[in-house]
Amino acid sequence: MGTRAAGDDLYKGTNFTRPELETLTRRFLELALTPNASSTTTPLTTATPSSGPSQVPSTAPGLGTIPGSVPVGVAVVGGAAGAGVGEVVGRIDRSRFRDLLADTFGVDDSLIMDRVFRCFDLDADNYISFDEFVRGMSVFLKGRPEEKMKFCFRVYDLNADRYISKEEMYQMLKNSLVKGSEEDEDGVKDLVDLVLKKLDEDRDGRVSEGDWNGAIGKEALLMEAFGQCLPRWSVSVHDASAFHVRLSVLSFSLLM
Predict the structure, then answer these.
(1) N or C: more exposed end of the chain, with fewer CB within 10 A?
(2) Which residues are bridge partners to 207 per DSSP?
């Protein structure tokens, strides 16, 4: 079920400024669902507060400028527009989150989209609460290098066993690249062998988080080796060639 999150705690625990956090809150409210009396989920309705809406321009990339309406069922600490983010109730389902990833951030691989959702959904209830949304977006949009490394590792660890196996690498790359020919599949197998050799620093046939951090520290291009899981601001949402170009460059670097 949806959880409540205090804005001040989120501000202190994320990489967002206060204006960015307020803008992100409004983006969440555009996407959020809330349980109604019959226990089904419906979009939050909005009502304009008596003090008037707050117009907060976005400074966080990818968020856009979001008009300031306050939904019914959302408490704003202090009751005044622009006073800061209060307690927000609501949740985003998988479908709406996938639309956000594809339409706003250019992440459109189905397997990767599902894994990004799982990494945001910390309590594994199949919904993203406001707290989960803000903390996840803090890394996704403005994460420090070490935060992004950890996030990408979690995305690629498909079965959450703390390792990226050769089989998982093959599944992700095949899902991204193969168009159905046997020749393509052989190429993916060769690429998996190259990537594993580069990432598996202790040579145990799988990639631990320690292996991952060590390898990414030496070659940052490897961080999204198995599919795009971070935003691409300069790439068109429908430009699938960007990932293929990156893999071509990666393949060359692995041979060096």
Answers:
(1) C
(2) 164
- Give the C-alpha separation, 197 to 215, whole Å: 10
Report CA 75 to chain centroid distance, whole Å. Answer: 26
What is the per-residue pLDDT across 164-222, written as a single tens digit (0 to 9) for each? 999 999 999 988 776 555 667 788 899 999 999 999 999 999 999 999 999 999 998 89
Tell me the pTM.
0.73
DSSP per-residue letters across 148-214: HHHHHHHHH-TT-SSEEEHHHHHHHHHHHH--S-HHHHHHHHHHHHHHHHHH-TT-SSEEEHHHHHH
Contact status, residue 128 vs residue 120, Cβ threshold 8 Å: yes
Structure tokens at 135: 């903390």
Asked if residues 2 and 11 have their Cβ atoms less than 8 Å apart, the reply is no
| Cα gap 13→18, rounded to integer Å | 12
Residue from 221, 211, 228, 212 nearest 252 by CA: 221
